[in-house]
Predict the 3D structure of the following.
Amino acid sequence: MSSVEDNNNISIKELITINQDKINDILNHRYTDESLLFGTIIFTQSKVQSYILTEFESQVKSKFIDTNNDNATGISNNLQDLNSKYLTPGNIVDKVWIAIHHPTIKYFQSQFYYLDKESRKLTNGNNNSNINGNGINSNNNTNNNSNNNINNNHNSNNNRRNDKTLNYKSVEFRKLFDSYVKFISKCYSFYFNVIHSLINKYNLSIYIPIKKICSTLKFELSKDVIKNLIDLPPATITDNDSHISNNNNSNTDTRNEVVSEIIYTIHKCILFIGDLSRYRTLIAKTYLPLNSISKEDNNNYSKSIELYKLSLLVLPSLGDPYNHIAIIDNLKDDKFNVVYNFMRSCLTTKPSIIGFNNLINFLSKDPLINPIFKQFEKLNCLNRDKITKNDRLELLKTEFLILLNYYLLPNKWKLKEGYLFKNYKIKDIQNDFLLLLSKLDFHKQIFNDFYLKQLSILLGGFELLIDNNKNHPDLIQDKLIISNYLKFIMKYFMNMMKTSINNNKLNIDSSSSQSSDNNNNNK
């Protein structure tokens, strides 16, 4: 590596660190200088964006254009793997989020919390909301202890907003939210500009869904821009490239590494735009009156989910987006999809370590206060003959999670052999679950999806039990536990096959009967 590039790389790290300290100093003052805060953020983003684009330009020139130049590889060689002390462009995007954007979001969240607390004091309210959540982590850096996601109870937030006595400090709430939106907008511009610049410069259409990215982020590529795009010769991008692991010194592999790094950078930018959307919506739904929430913020996180799914289209081998989707499911109190998406985050080529820990922590939470068990007790008492379709589906989801917990984490959920804690007989729960499940028409899309998600969770649970790399104190990888888990899976498969055969018989009988009636009518 050349000394110039080395110095430049150190300088960009120093730049981020220096401005991180400046921002922390600004935020630690009693009265925050908003113009100074935003100015520092804009300056940092501008320098980092320029560095990223220049770095890619050098890389593309050396690897794709100047391939006959013996010294070409010395122009720039900063695209090291994740374990290197040098930062790649994708790592730099990560660092901007971890060091600059996310801590500032946490600052704004704390300001909303304390303003809400003061408002409650003025109204003699004793029902303080908690923004610290249940420990589910959304950030990609496991070493950053400040990155726990806010997990408010959604229903209590709605009740808080409907309280007419909370009109005190409403002006302060609005002013603070306006500042927060400005901050989110400036962060968004950084990630958007990086994506926009890369897509406007390089022809990436054979690697990622350019049209989908443009439509989601609402920009277009003009014909003139398309004509002038730099073609990157086809390179085989595999799961062993760049951020997914190994380096190699061959020219083909370094080409792969450049393209892979560009794709990874775009993936991370889309992911963080999704996070910005989620944090904005969360604050709006938590602290603003219902009639003050804009259409953009009252979308039930649909925009965030769209962005997370887009990041998966760009780079499906990384599990982090599933972890972020699961956090939104938790905010919606959709426990079944929380488990499904946490499980999906563990099963990609590059699994999310945070997603795995979130999954086990979520399932192993003390059963007596676990929301899954509370939901089960609430629905289990319903009359099966009079139960509504919606309640029946929710009961099925809850029974499935109870059975999953019993077989996957018996040390947490099993009272004794054959019994759940509180002396619920597991056989009764299992029989009820399989009976109700057999009555579903899996030809309908909603039930078809339900079946597929159950299968993904069950197979994922088995993978966790046999993968020695999956370590958690509450996950015991014991032969007897694995055997019992497999027996449950086989019962599930047998029930699904019987249901499928019975449904097909009914369809055949119905078709035969209809055909016979038509023939009789013709006679």
Summary: DSSP finds 18 helices and five strands in the chain. Residues 371-522 form one domain. The chain has a mean pLDDT of 81.
